[in-house]
Amino acid sequence: MLKFPSMWLKNASLGDQIANELRLRILENQIKPGEVLSENNIAGQYGTSRSPVRDALKALSLDGLIRLERMGAVVLGMSLDDIQELYDIREMIENFAQQKVSKKNVRLLVQELRQNIDKMELAAKYDNHSEFAYYDLLFHETIVRHAEHKRLLNLWNSMKPLLMSVILVTTERVFAQSAEHVHWVVSKHQRIVEAIASQNDGLITKTVGRYFDDSKHTLTESFDDVDRPK
């Protein structure tokens, strides 16, 4: 059973911590579509008042993972189509961000991205899927931040909590396949760095497109057993 990594929860409020853990359990089908979540029960599980639980449930509602009702929160879950749509938006964000950064001096960005890849490779060496996932997400967020576009960053941040759980689940399943598959994921990130370093718009677009085509295939393999109730 996957647990939300403590390093991902640093500086998070209690409500955010609860939301992150519930979000992961829903994506993993530990909490199934159709189940009803009770504020009182969750507060008891976490030894807290209902206030941070209420905040957590509001966040999950905004994600579309639950529907708030008077008698509790009904779990909707997340279908493969929902996850693919999330990645459609992510692809648009990252393609735009990479086009933006390519117009600037990319030396420091390329250096920072290569350091992230080094940390991913170290995590792979020690078979640490959660640390690998952490630096994977940080790699992409670094590009978005270097674009220096406030509204783009706001859009990224609104998706980030859900992305964290999706990437954590997919990375755990990639690690379960083979070391070769993990190294293939690393090589995809290396190609992104090479494209950014080239500052060639056409190569960037092609590389981003290929990256997300591959990622959507991985999503299909990781989430082919999830769907909303009929």
Describe the structure in your own words.
- With 230 residues, the chain is mainly alpha-helical.
- The chain folds into 2 domains: 70 residues, Winged helix-like DNA-binding domain superfamily/Winged helix DNA-binding domain (Arc Repressor Mutant, subunit A, Orthogonal Bundle), CATH 1.10.10.10; 144 residues, Four Helix Bundle (Hemerythrin (Met), subunit A) (Up-down Bundle).
- Helix content is 72%, strand content 4%.
- It has 9 helices and 3 strands.
Shape verdict: globular
Which spans of ≥5 residues are poorly predicted at pLDDT below 50? none
Number of domains: 2
Tell me the name of the CATH homologous superfamily of the largest domain: GntR ligand-binding domain-like
The largest sheet has its strands arranged as 1-3-2
Could you name the CATH class of the largest domain? Mainly Alpha
| Topology order in helix (H) and strand (E) letters | HEHHEEHHHHHH
Q: Determine the number of helices (DSSP H or I, runs of at least 4 residues).
A: 9
How much of the residues is beta strand, in percent? under 5%
Query: Would you tell me the overall average pLDDT?
Result: 92
User: What about the largest sheet?
Assistant: 3 strands, antiparallel
Number of β-strand runs: 3
CATH 2nd-level architecture of the largest domain: Up-down Bundle
CA-atom Rg in angstroms:
18 Å
Helices and strands: which structural class? mainly alpha
CATH fold label of the largest domain: Four Helix Bundle (Hemerythrin (Met), subunit A)
- What is the helical fraction, as a range of percent? over 70%
Report how far the terminal alpha carbons are from each other. Answer: 26 Å
